[in-house]
Protein backbone atom coordinates (compact mmCIF):
# COMPACT_ATOMS: atom_id res chain seq x y z
CA UNK A 1 0.00 0.00 0.00
CA UNK A 2 1.15 3.50 -0.68
CA UNK A 3 -0.52 4.93 2.37
CA UNK A 4 -0.11 2.55 5.24
CA UNK A 5 -1.25 3.97 8.42
CA UNK A 6 1.87 4.77 10.28
CA UNK A 7 0.77 8.43 10.11
CA UNK A 8 -2.08 7.72 12.43
CA UNK A 9 0.31 6.45 15.01
CA UNK A 10 1.57 10.03 15.26
CA UNK A 11 -1.80 11.80 14.83
CA UNK A 12 -3.82 9.68 17.17
CA UNK A 13 -1.13 9.34 19.74
CA UNK A 14 -0.42 13.04 19.85
CA UNK A 15 -4.06 13.68 20.59
CA UNK A 16 -4.06 10.79 23.08
CA UNK A 17 -1.01 11.98 24.94
CA UNK A 18 -2.48 15.43 25.21
CA UNK A 19 -5.65 14.16 26.80
CA UNK A 20 -4.04 13.20 30.15
CA UNK A 21 -6.18 10.76 32.16
CA UNK A 22 -9.57 9.31 31.39
CA UNK A 23 -11.01 11.84 33.80
CA UNK A 24 -9.66 15.35 34.03
CA UNK A 25 -7.53 16.43 36.90
CA UNK A 26 -7.31 19.85 38.38
CA UNK A 27 -3.65 20.14 37.54
CA UNK A 28 -1.22 18.19 35.32
CA UNK A 29 0.53 15.27 36.89
CA UNK A 30 3.71 13.49 36.04
CA UNK A 31 3.13 10.20 34.17
CA UNK A 32 4.12 7.09 35.99
CA UNK A 33 6.58 4.59 34.61
CA UNK A 34 5.21 1.74 32.49
CA UNK A 35 4.16 -1.30 32.68
CA UNK A 36 3.94 -0.73 28.96
CA UNK A 37 0.61 -2.39 28.34
CA UNK A 38 -2.67 -3.10 30.02
CA UNK A 39 -3.67 -6.64 31.04
CA UNK A 40 -4.77 -8.71 28.08
CA UNK A 41 -8.36 -9.95 27.90
CA UNK A 42 -8.97 -13.68 28.12
CA UNK A 43 -8.88 -15.65 24.89
CA UNK A 44 -12.32 -15.91 23.35
CA UNK A 45 -11.87 -18.04 20.24
CA UNK A 46 -9.54 -20.78 19.14
CA UNK A 47 -9.57 -20.07 15.41
CA UNK A 48 -7.35 -17.33 14.04
CA UNK A 49 -9.58 -14.65 12.48
CA UNK A 50 -9.12 -13.63 8.87
CA UNK A 51 -7.00 -10.55 8.24
CA UNK A 52 -9.23 -7.74 6.99
CA UNK A 53 -6.64 -5.07 6.25
CA UNK A 54 -3.31 -6.68 5.35
CA UNK A 55 -0.16 -4.57 5.39
CA UNK A 56 2.16 -4.80 2.42
CA UNK A 57 5.47 -4.86 4.23
CA UNK A 58 8.75 -3.91 2.63
CA UNK A 59 11.17 -6.59 1.43
CA UNK A 60 12.82 -8.44 4.26
CA UNK A 61 15.56 -6.40 5.89
CA UNK A 62 17.38 -6.62 9.22
CA UNK A 63 15.38 -5.29 12.15
CA UNK A 64 16.38 -4.92 15.78
CA UNK A 65 14.70 -7.13 18.33
CA UNK A 66 11.58 -5.55 19.81
CA UNK A 67 13.20 -4.99 23.20
CA UNK A 68 16.10 -3.20 21.53
CA UNK A 69 14.20 -1.20 18.93
CA UNK A 70 14.03 2.18 20.68
CA UNK A 71 17.21 3.62 19.15
CA UNK A 72 16.15 2.72 15.61
CA UNK A 73 12.63 4.07 16.12
CA UNK A 74 13.97 7.25 17.70
CA UNK A 75 16.30 7.83 14.76
CA UNK A 76 13.51 7.24 12.23
CA UNK A 77 11.11 9.60 13.99
CA UNK A 78 13.81 12.23 14.47
CA UNK A 79 14.20 12.41 10.70
CA UNK A 80 10.49 13.17 10.40
CA UNK A 81 9.86 15.44 13.37
CA UNK A 82 13.31 16.78 14.17
CA UNK A 83 15.19 15.91 17.33
CA UNK A 84 13.92 18.97 19.21
CA UNK A 85 10.23 18.20 18.61
CA UNK A 86 10.74 14.50 19.24
CA UNK A 87 12.42 15.14 22.56
CA UNK A 88 9.76 17.66 23.53
CA UNK A 89 6.78 15.43 22.79
CA UNK A 90 7.90 11.80 23.08
CA UNK A 91 9.23 9.42 25.70
CA UNK A 92 12.33 7.58 24.45
CA UNK A 93 11.62 4.19 26.01
CA UNK A 94 9.39 1.34 24.87
CA UNK A 95 8.15 3.32 21.87
CA UNK A 96 6.63 0.54 19.80
CA UNK A 97 5.03 -1.15 22.79
CA UNK A 98 3.61 2.18 23.98
CA UNK A 99 2.15 2.98 20.57
CA UNK A 100 0.56 -0.44 20.19
CA UNK A 101 -0.93 -0.40 23.71
CA UNK A 102 -2.37 3.10 23.21
CA UNK A 103 -3.94 2.24 19.86
CA UNK A 104 -5.50 -0.83 21.45
CA UNK A 105 -6.84 1.25 24.36
CA UNK A 106 -8.37 4.15 22.41
CA UNK A 107 -11.65 2.35 21.57
CA UNK A 108 -11.97 1.23 25.19
CA UNK A 109 -13.26 3.15 28.19
CA UNK A 110 -9.81 4.01 29.49
CA UNK A 111 -6.48 4.90 27.86
CA UNK A 112 -3.91 5.01 30.68
CA UNK A 113 -1.30 7.75 30.46
CA UNK A 114 1.42 5.40 31.71
CA UNK A 115 1.46 3.48 28.40
CA UNK A 116 1.30 6.47 26.05
CA UNK A 117 4.38 7.35 23.98
CA UNK A 118 3.90 11.13 24.21
CA UNK A 119 4.15 13.46 27.15
CA UNK A 120 0.95 14.99 28.58
CA UNK A 121 -0.19 18.40 27.43
CA UNK A 122 1.16 21.19 29.66
CA UNK A 123 -0.88 23.51 31.86
CA UNK A 124 -3.98 22.60 33.90
CA UNK A 125 -7.24 21.56 32.32
CA UNK A 126 -9.07 24.82 31.60
CA UNK A 127 -12.63 25.23 32.82
CA UNK A 128 -14.89 28.10 33.76
CA UNK A 129 -17.99 28.61 35.88
CA UNK A 130 -18.95 26.94 39.14
CA UNK A 131 -21.26 24.21 40.33
CA UNK A 132 -23.83 23.12 37.78
CA UNK A 133 -22.63 25.83 35.41
CA UNK A 134 -19.08 24.53 35.04
CA UNK A 135 -18.01 24.15 31.39
CA UNK A 136 -14.84 23.51 29.42
CA UNK A 137 -13.15 26.85 28.83
CA UNK A 138 -12.87 27.96 25.18
CA UNK A 139 -9.16 28.45 25.82
CA UNK A 140 -8.65 24.79 26.70
CA UNK A 141 -8.21 23.84 23.05
CA UNK A 142 -5.06 25.97 22.84
CA UNK A 143 -3.29 23.43 25.03
CA UNK A 144 -3.67 20.83 22.27
CA UNK A 145 -2.78 23.03 19.30
CA UNK A 146 0.98 22.24 19.24
CA UNK A 147 0.26 18.51 19.08
CA UNK A 148 -2.18 18.97 16.21
CA UNK A 149 0.28 21.21 14.37
CA UNK A 150 3.05 18.62 14.60
CA UNK A 151 0.69 15.88 13.43
CA UNK A 152 -0.33 17.89 10.38
CA UNK A 153 3.28 18.66 9.47
CA UNK A 154 4.47 15.05 9.30
CA UNK A 155 5.50 13.85 5.83
CA UNK A 156 3.03 11.07 5.05
CA UNK A 157 5.17 9.26 2.51
CA UNK A 158 8.13 9.00 4.86
CA UNK A 159 5.84 7.81 7.64
CA UNK A 160 4.53 5.08 5.35
CA UNK A 161 8.09 3.90 4.75
CA UNK A 162 8.86 3.81 8.46
CA UNK A 163 5.65 1.98 9.31
CA UNK A 164 6.23 -0.56 6.54
CA UNK A 165 9.76 -1.19 7.68
CA UNK A 166 8.90 -1.67 11.33
CA UNK A 167 5.50 -3.35 10.99
CA UNK A 168 6.74 -6.82 12.04
CA UNK A 169 7.72 -5.32 15.40
CA UNK A 170 4.33 -3.63 15.81
CA UNK A 171 2.68 -6.98 15.09
CA UNK A 172 4.94 -8.74 17.57
CA UNK A 173 4.16 -6.16 20.25
CA UNK A 174 0.43 -6.62 19.63
CA UNK A 175 0.69 -10.38 19.97
CA UNK A 176 2.71 -10.01 23.16
CA UNK A 177 0.09 -7.61 24.50
CA UNK A 178 -2.25 -10.59 24.66
CA UNK A 179 -3.51 -11.11 21.11
CA UNK A 180 -1.51 -14.01 19.65
CA UNK A 181 -4.15 -14.48 16.94
CA UNK A 182 -4.88 -10.82 16.33
CA UNK A 183 -3.66 -8.51 13.57
CA UNK A 184 -2.50 -5.07 14.67
CA UNK A 185 -3.40 -3.24 11.47
CA UNK A 186 -7.01 -4.42 11.82
CA UNK A 187 -7.12 -3.08 15.36
CA UNK A 188 -5.73 0.21 14.12
CA UNK A 189 -8.55 0.52 11.60
CA UNK A 190 -11.05 -0.17 14.39
CA UNK A 191 -9.47 2.63 16.43
CA UNK A 192 -9.67 4.98 13.46
CA UNK A 193 -13.34 4.23 12.90
CA UNK A 194 -14.06 4.80 16.56
CA UNK A 195 -12.31 8.18 16.53
CA UNK A 196 -14.09 9.25 13.37
CA UNK A 197 -17.42 8.46 15.01
CA UNK A 198 -16.75 10.94 17.81
CA UNK A 199 -19.61 13.47 17.90
CA UNK A 200 -18.97 17.08 16.94
CA UNK A 201 -20.03 18.84 20.10
CA UNK A 202 -20.23 22.60 19.98
CA UNK A 203 -18.94 24.46 22.99
CA UNK A 204 -19.64 25.09 25.80
CA UNK A 205 -19.56 21.53 27.11
CA UNK A 206 -20.93 21.15 30.62
CA UNK A 207 -18.98 19.34 33.32
CA UNK A 208 -19.66 17.81 36.69
CA UNK A 209 -17.24 16.96 39.50
CA UNK A 210 -18.70 14.09 41.53
CA UNK A 211 -15.40 13.55 43.34
CA UNK A 212 -11.95 14.83 42.37
CA UNK A 213 -12.04 14.24 38.62
CA UNK A 214 -14.17 16.15 36.16
CA UNK A 215 -16.65 14.29 33.98
CA UNK A 216 -19.02 15.22 31.18
CA UNK A 217 -22.37 16.27 32.58
CA UNK A 218 -24.09 14.46 29.71
CA UNK A 219 -24.11 10.72 30.58
CA UNK A 220 -24.11 9.82 26.88
CA UNK A 221 -20.84 11.68 26.36
CA UNK A 222 -19.33 10.28 29.54
CA UNK A 223 -20.09 6.77 28.27
CA UNK A 224 -18.05 7.32 25.10
CA UNK A 225 -14.72 5.61 24.48
CA UNK A 226 -11.47 7.09 25.72
CA UNK A 227 -10.50 8.00 22.17
CA UNK A 228 -13.76 9.78 21.45
CA UNK A 229 -13.46 11.76 24.67
CA UNK A 230 -10.03 12.86 23.57
CA UNK A 231 -11.51 14.18 20.35
CA UNK A 232 -14.20 16.05 22.26
CA UNK A 233 -11.86 17.52 24.85
CA UNK A 234 -9.44 18.95 22.31
CA UNK A 235 -12.17 21.20 20.94
CA UNK A 236 -14.18 21.07 17.72
CA UNK A 237 -11.64 22.98 15.61
CA UNK A 238 -8.72 20.74 16.56
CA UNK A 239 -10.89 17.64 16.24
CA UNK A 240 -11.93 18.62 12.73
CA UNK A 241 -8.29 18.92 11.66
CA UNK A 242 -7.43 15.55 13.17
CA UNK A 243 -10.48 13.86 11.66
CA UNK A 244 -9.61 15.16 8.20
CA UNK A 245 -6.19 13.58 8.51
CA UNK A 246 -7.63 10.34 9.88
CA UNK A 247 -10.05 10.04 6.94
CA UNK A 248 -7.18 10.35 4.48
CA UNK A 249 -5.19 7.77 6.37
CA UNK A 250 -8.03 5.31 6.63
CA UNK A 251 -8.73 5.58 2.92
CA UNK A 252 -5.07 4.87 2.20
CA UNK A 253 -5.07 1.85 4.51
CA UNK A 254 -8.29 0.20 3.37
CA UNK A 255 -8.98 1.84 -0.01
CA UNK A 256 -12.48 2.50 1.31
CA UNK A 257 -14.23 5.52 2.71
CA UNK A 258 -15.26 4.90 6.35
CA UNK A 259 -18.87 5.86 5.51
CA UNK A 260 -19.11 3.83 2.33
CA UNK A 261 -18.75 0.29 1.06
CA UNK A 262 -17.29 1.51 -2.20
CA UNK A 263 -13.61 0.81 -2.89
Describe what this molecule looks like in 3D:
Helices cover 45% and strands 3% of the residues. By secondary structure, it is mostly helical. It has one domain (6-40, 50-125, 140-200, 225-254). A hairpin with a 6-residue loop joins strand 1 (127-128) and strand 2 (135-136). It is globular and about 60 Å long.
Concise account of the structure shown:
The chain is mainly alpha-helical and 263 residues long. 45% of the residues lie in helices and 3% in strands. The protein has one domain.
- Please provide the ordered H/E string of secondary-structure elements: HHHHEEHHHEEHHH
Number of strands: 4
State the strand order across the main sheet.
Answer: 1-2
Give the helix tally: 10
Specify the overall morphology. Answer: globular
- Relative helix content: 40-55%
Looking at this protein, list some descriptive labels.
single chain; 263 residues; mainly alpha; two-stranded antiparallel ribbon; two-stranded antiparallel sheet; globular; disordered N terminus
Detail the topology: elements first, then pairings:
Blueprint: H1 6-18, H2 70-81, H3 83-89, H4 95-105, E1 127-128, E2 135-136, H5 145-153, H6 156-178, H7 184-196, E3 207-208, E4 215-216, H8 219-222, H9 226-233, H10 236-254
Antiparallel strand pairs: 1-2, 3-4
Amino acid sequence: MKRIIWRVLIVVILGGGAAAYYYWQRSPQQPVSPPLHTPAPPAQVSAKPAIRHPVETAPAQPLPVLSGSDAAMWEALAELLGKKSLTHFFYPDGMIRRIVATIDNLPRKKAPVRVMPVKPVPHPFARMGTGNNTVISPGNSKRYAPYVTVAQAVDAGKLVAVYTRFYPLFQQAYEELGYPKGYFNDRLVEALDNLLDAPDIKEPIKLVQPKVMYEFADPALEARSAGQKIMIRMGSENAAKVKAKLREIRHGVTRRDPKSNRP
